[in-house]
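Discussion board: Methods & Data

I've been asked by a reviewer to show the raw model output for two of the constructs in my manuscript, not just the figures. I'm not sure how much to include, so I'm pasting the format here to get opinions. Each protein appears as its amino acid sequence followed by a line of discrete structure tokens. Is this the kind of thing reviewers expect to see in a supplement, or should I convert it first? Here is construct A:
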Amino acid sequence: EIFSSPTDYCKACPPYADCATSNTTLESIGIPRDYWRASLLTTEIHKCDASDHCSGSGGATETSRRRLAASGGAGPGCDLGHTGPLCEWCVSNEQYFSRKEGGCADCPTAGRFGILAAALVALAGTAFLSY
């Protein structure tokens, strides 16, 4: 039946996708770098505006942190250390996604907070004594 009405089964290549390979299927659509799709079963392809870590090709699947650690720490369609929608989640629990940096950044340590707190206490003490 596919040969009698191929347009019922064959669809146009989605925008931003690479369908240059013959016999491209939904699962084998090429995704360029800086683009991401939620799964191998969707034609929706999204531009990664905030993240510099969308590696393209392949689709995302639900991946647990344990599986990410075993795979070397990259979510499907994302560079190492990044995962989730548009690669805007960090694999490490000690990092957060920074839109400013376009990727994962280290969480502030207690030492940094301690220095800031000490500076604020000193400033408040100086203000109190001079008042």
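Construct B, same format:
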Amino acid sequence: AGWEALRNATFERQQAIGWIPETARLTAIDPTMTKWQDIPERQRAFQTRLMEVYAGFLEHTDTQHGKILDELDRQGLTNNTLIIYVFADNGASAEGLQGTVAELLAQNQLPSTVDQQIEVLEKDFGGLSALG
């Protein structure tokens, strides 16, 4: 599957429910982005786990925003409230195109490969399920 398949499915679902116009076309993936088919098989579970963790973050965030909207509604303030929603979290990986298990590695410019991160997860933390 991979991120291209997820991207396509998300776009199609958003069109189907009317969030984006039927005439909209999905832009091409930036050529600097790694294609899923180019991710080595041994790294795909790691990349899949990063996508799962990000999805969990988005689900949690959506739930918290929903609580605010529910409370405004409960108080009868919905029709007298302007909501400006800016969701700017830098995407699934602010640490580069490969992702990381330790943001401080990237912030301190300490290079690490995906294979090194997988090794640390397996050796020191019990595997991918510990991530997230």
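Answer (T.O., handling editor elsewhere):
This is acceptable in a supplement if you add a one-line summary per construct. For B, something like: The two ends are 21 Å apart (CA to CA).
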